[in-house]
Amino acid sequence: NLHPYVSQTLVGLLQKLVKRHKRLVNEIRRINDEMKEKQTGAPGDTITTPTPSPSPSADVKVNMMPSADALLQDLSLLEEVIRMALEIFNSILAHSLGANTHLIYNLLYQREYLAPLHTH
Known about the structure:
This protein is mainly alpha-helical.
């Protein structure tokens, strides 16, 4: 029998993981679109030469941008954490469904945030 606060916190954690997953997927798609645009090049575009920046902080920001490979690794790890969290929920609900009414309520209350999990 989980305490109501624990149930709410577990569902909140899963909600945050799902939001982070959605953000990562959108970021990867954006990077892929940018790479495709660079490879194909839009007709009528003019090529301009970049002007050197006077401060080294601009170079640092460019180097700190996450690469697609790093984002894919983050996404893979995040999907594994989401799967583990879902297994925890499955185990709790499978073994003591009647005793965890607060967890069931919180899952149903937050179901719109958890809808993207149908694929996991």
